[in-house]
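User: I'm new to structure prediction. If I give you an amino acid sequence, what do you actually give back? Let's try with this one:
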Amino acid sequence: MLQKTPGDPFLHYARALELKKLDQLEPALESLAQTIKLDAHYCYAYYQQGQIFEQLQRPADARNAYRTGLDAAHRAGDAKAAGELEAALDMIS
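Assistant: Good question. You get back a string of structure tokens that encode the predicted 3D arrangement of the chain. For your 93 residues, that looks like this:
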């Protein structure tokens, strides 16, 4: 599906989640970066980035992902995503 519609951010996001399940964290991060490149307001991609960075023990990168996602959530008016990103940021800070 991704080959047919490479510009679909959801497909990149879904791919990232599958890669994360398989513990292929670096490729998952690449798919999340592509998701965000295609749609900077895809708030949950930032959340997943933060989660993976935490798994990789990269707390500064995780905080940055959560903060950037929080900004995107506010711009998109997505209160639910903002709350989840804020909670993740509080947990790591």
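You can read the tokens as a compact description of the fold. Here is one thing that stands out. The chain has one domain: 9-92.
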